[in-house]
């Protein structure tokens, strides 16, 4: 039986099992190498103190766990980078286009008109869209009447209840639906033009700058036109 030199830092050197390795590969150990070392350890263990099954399984489990986690992290990073790259390209193509996002206000431009949509989980006997100015005063009330379940679209043409043109600017939008014997507030999604896109260099997200409304997260976009 080979004798292990107690002064050596690596007990496998005395067994002639260690080969010179390239510096770049010293920290990499495959499962085949690990199993060879395990077999060698079993063949040269102290007969009076043999490794029990629990110890052996523990070492194998630790190795496979660490190896698996490393491979999983690498795969996950590649997937994340790929998704971030695809999202960035898609977001960059939105500049100048209209997107619907969950906002409670819109911008009335010189050309007039604010468009929005809401989701009805069930049919409503009546739907009303309230348009209010910056001071909270109601400018226009759009009565849409009975509506079926599903996506509800609406447009405010910029006229007030007296038929006059409203000043350009930001206006609050609220949607109410009468369902059964209850009046329910619906979350509106308002259309706005994308002025620019900001892509986080660390891959933590993409921000869209909406004309007159400011930044929103790209993930908040409901629809693109």
Low-confidence stretches: 24-28
Helix-residue proportion: 10-25%
- Average pLDDT works out at 78
Largest sheet: 7 strands, antiparallel
Class of secondary structure makeup: alpha+beta
Keywords, separated by commas or semicolons:
alpha+beta; Immunoglobulin-like; elongated; 35% strand
Which helices and strands occur, and which strands form pairs?
Blueprint: H1 31-43, H2 53-92, E1 98-101, E2 105-108, E3 114-120, E4 124-132, E5 138-147, E6 150-156, E7 169-179, E8 182-186, E9 189-199, E10 206-210, E11 214-217, E12 223-224
Antiparallel strand pairs: 1-9, 1-12, 2-7, 3-6, 3-9, 4-5, 4-7, 7-8, 9-10, 10-11
Please sum up the structure shown.
The chain is 24% helix and 35% strand.
Structure description:
- The protein has a domain at 99-191: Sandwich (Immunoglobulin-like), CATH 2.60.40.4070.
- With 225 residues, it is α+β, with helices and mostly antiparallel strands.
- The strands form two sheets. Strands 1, 3, 6, 9, 10, 11 and 12 form a seven-stranded antiparallel sheet that branches. Strands 2, 4, 5, 7 and 8 form a five-stranded antiparallel sheet that branches.
- It has two helices and twelve strands.
- The radius of gyration is 33 Å and the shape is elongated.
- A hairpin with a 5-residue loop joins strand 4 and strand 5.
């Amino acid at each position: 039986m080979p004798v292990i030199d107690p002064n050596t830092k690596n007990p496998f050197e005395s067994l002639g099992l260690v080969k010179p390795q390239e510096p770049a590969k010293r920290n990499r150990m495959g499962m085949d190498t690990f199993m060879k070392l395990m077999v060698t350890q079993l063949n040269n263990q102290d007969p009076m103190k043999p490794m029990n099954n629990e110890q052996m399984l523990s070492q194998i489990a630790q190795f496979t766990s660490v190896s698996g986690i490393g491979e999983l992290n690498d795969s996950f990073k590649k997937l994340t980078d790929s998704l971030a790259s695809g999202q960035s390209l898609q977001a960059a193509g939105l500049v100048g286009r209209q997107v619907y996002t969950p906002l409670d206000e819109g911008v009335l431009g010189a050309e007039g008109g604010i468009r929005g949509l809401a989701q009805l989980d069930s049919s409503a006997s009546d739907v009303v869209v309230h348009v209010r100015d910056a001071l909270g005063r109601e400018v226009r009330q759009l009565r849409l009447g009975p509506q079926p379940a599903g996506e509800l679209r609406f447009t405010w043409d910029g006229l007030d209840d007296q038929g006059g043109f409203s000043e350009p600017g930001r206006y609050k939008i609220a949607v109410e639906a009468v369902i059964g014997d209850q009046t329910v507030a619906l979350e509106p999604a308002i259309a706005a033009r994308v002025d620019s896109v900001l892509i986080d260099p660390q891959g933590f997200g993409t921000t869209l700058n909406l004309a007159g409304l400011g930044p929103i997260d790209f993930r908040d976009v409901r629809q693109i036109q």
